[in-house]
Design brief:
heterodimer; A: 212 residues; six-stranded mixed sheet; 7 helices; B: 380 residues; 3 domains; globular; Rab-GAP-TBC_dom (chain B); Rab-GAP_TBC_sf (chain B); Rab-GAP TBC domain-containing protein (chain B); GTPase activator activity (chain B); Rab_GTPases_membrane_traffic (chain A)
Chain lengths: 212, 380
């Protein structure tokens, strides 16, 4: 099982966000290429891994932790954030409340994960608004502006059509690598640079229509 | 003596179910004693019959003796029993069905009337009257119900969804400190299966293909009310499992860790040295009582004992069962690294498990509990 499993970096990634925004679906689509056969509400955490060649920086093994989204579980869920270097903060583009709650989730991440955690905001379920645009409750620009103001990465996605699924995971992994090597070389060149590096740019947005 | 964690412990747990037969009699002295009382010469095959007679005799009394019923139910309702036996035993032990036989009919119809009132008060109000919070609860319940799938076709039926929606919503509103917590949708399913089996006079294993449209609506109404009240009784003893911060569950996870450390230190060290935290794998065990780990037939057998244990079944005793369950897999786990263990524990190879294997766990858990109780200082 573990034999051919060689990698240069091991990154712990967490999936957070309100209940039923599609965290487990995104993970299943990315890891298995399919949606869960018998979907159930996630209780506690679920774990998956995938080894990915980065565009730059070698091979990374992503340990991905899918968490329960319901409010009642938050106190306990945050215990799973420790040592996470990346997070997908997922909301549902058809439910404004799930986007508003991203502020709270971000706070939880800042309080419990690594200080320099790289966060990718993900507006999921765009397949629904492609079918019926009136279902959209969170405009693309609004979410993008919010992510930018917090120096977070941002994508919209659909676990159902696979749209951007690969990108949200792999751009996040690449960015973690970039940040971490940057921090290292900054430290090497200038000892005054501390952790808590933030993203200064956003990844290119892939608009609806370009499926992976 | 128990303070010496022994490798032999896990070996004994891995033994085939049949070897635990005499251990299983621990909690119920006399009940599973292989039958000098059953005048027959061929012992074991007659055992279930003797037990069935004892259930029958227990129910036939003017007032059911709950201590006697507790002993019987603890070691499980035999496969051969009429499907109504389990439903009745659960309802009696949970304090839902009155122990006095002459009050049972009126008692039940009173509770079912009360439930209909609750439905009117809480559920059938016009939607505009609902608060934001109530709407949010209802939305979450509606999302979770269709993905409650304990392996029975009828849980996909709209009529069954209606039953679950009403019971879960009313329970949540009447228990605001916890409200609806994901996983409680799982917990109502054993009641629905057992009570349906009882009404339809079928084994729960024969309900997999049942069409709800075949079930008379009056029966469905009764089942709904009975399941609501029994779920309420069960959850009343474990309220702090689902309140803010879930202190009850945190306590159980911590205790599990202590117990495992004591009974199989090598396994404990292996888990912790690999960076595995108990919360990572056992939170779900506590939150859903291993329902996600076992097929329904096993869950039902587990609940025979938990319900018989009354207040401690779904809390204290469950932790011992979890400890035994974890140690059962020690030989495999000890060969695995962090990742392999996490993936293994997410999907234990238990799909083919039979209730007999649950009985092994229960028997071991009972022994463990007795040992810890006779030397409580070991945990302090």
């Amino acid at each position: 099982m573990a034999g051919q499993d060689e990698y240069d970096h091991l990154y712990k990634i967490i999936l957070v966000g309100d209940a039923t925004v599609g965290k487990t679906h995104l993970l299943s689509r990315y890891i298995k290429g399919t949606l869960p056969k018998a979907p159930t509400a996630t209780i506690g955490v679920e774990f998956a891994t995938r080894t990915v060649p980065l565009a730059v920086g070698g091979t990374v093994k992503a340990q991905i932790w899918d968490t329960a989204g319901q409010e009642r579980y938050r106190a306990i869920t945050s215990a799973h954030y420790r040592r996470a270097v990346g997070a997908l903060l997922v909301y549902d583009v058809t439910k404004a409340q799930t986007f508003q709650n991203c502020t709270k989730w971000l706070e939880d991440l800042r309080n419990n994960a690594e200080p320099d955690i790289v966060v990718m905001v993900v507006g999921n379920k765009v397949d629904l608004v492609e079918k019926d645009p009136s279902l959209r409750q969170v405009p693309f620009e609004q979410a993008q502006a919010w992510a930018q103001s917090k120096s977070l990465m941002f994508y919209e996605s659909s676990a159902v059509t696979s749209f951007n699924v690969k990108h949200i995971f792999e751009d996040l992994l690449q960015e973690i690598y970039t940040q971490r090597t940057k921090v290292k070389s900054d430290r090497y060149n200038d000892n005054s640079t501390q952790g808590g590096m933030q993203l200064r740019h956003n990844p290119p947005q892939r608009q609806a229509g370009c499926c992976t | 003596m128990w303070s010496d964690p022994s490798a032999g412990r896990s070996a004994s747990l891995a033994a085939p179910p049949s070897s635990s037969a005499q251990a299983a009699s621990g909690p119920t002295p006399g009940t599973s004693d292989p039958g000098p009382s059953s005048s027959s010469s061929s012992g074991p095959p007659k055992k279930p019959l003797v037990k069935l007679q004892r259930f029958g005799a227990c129910f036939a009394k003017e007032a059911v003796d709950l201590n006697e019923l507790r002993e019987l139910l603890w070691s499980g309702v035999p496969d051969e029993a009429d499907p109504s036996v389990r439903a009745k035993a659960w309802q009696l032990m949970l304090g839902y069905l009155p122990v006095h036989v002459e009050r049972q009919v009126t008692g039940l119809s009173k509770k079912r009337r009360e439930y209909r009132e609750l439905v009117k008060d809480y559920f059938e109000r016009s939607p505009e009257m609902r608060s934001d919070n109530e709407n949010q609860i209802l939305r979450q319940i509606r999302v979770d119900i269709p993905r409650t799938n304990p392996g029975f076709k009828f849980f996909g039926d709209a009529v069954m969804h209606g039953i679950m929606e009403r019971t879960l919503f009313i329970w949540a509103l009447r228990n605001p400190a916890s409200g609806y917590v994901q996983g409680i949708n799982d917990l109502i399913t054993p009641f629905l299966v057992v009570f349906l089996a009882s009404y339809l006079n079928k084994r729960d294993e024969d309900l997999h293909e049942l069409e709800i449209s075949e079930v008379p609506s009056e029966v469905l109404e009764h089942i709904e009310a009975d399941a609501y009240w029994c779920l309420s009784k069960m959850l009343a003893d474990i309220q702090d499992h689902y309140t803010f911060g879930q202190p009850g569950i945190q306590r159980m996870v911590l205790r599990l860790k202590e117990i495992v450390k004591r009974i199989d230190e090598a396994l404990y060290d292996h888990l912790t040295n690999n960076g595995l935290e108990f919360l990572q794998f056992s939170f779900r065990w506590m939150n859903c009582f291993l329902m996600r780990e076992f097929p329904m037939r096993c869950v039902i057998r587990l609940w025979d004992t938990y319900i018989a244990e009354q207040a401690s079944g779904f809390s204290n005793f469950h932790v011992y069962v979890c400890a035994v369950f974890l140690v059962y897999w020690a030989p495999q786990l000890k060969m695995m690294d962090f990742q392999q263990m996490m993936l293994f524990m997410q999907k234990f190879p238990t799909e083919q498990w039979r209730p007999q294997q649950i009985e092994t766990l229960l028997a071991e858990a009972y022994v463990l509990k007795s040992l810890f109780h006779s030397s409580p200082k070991h945990l302090s």
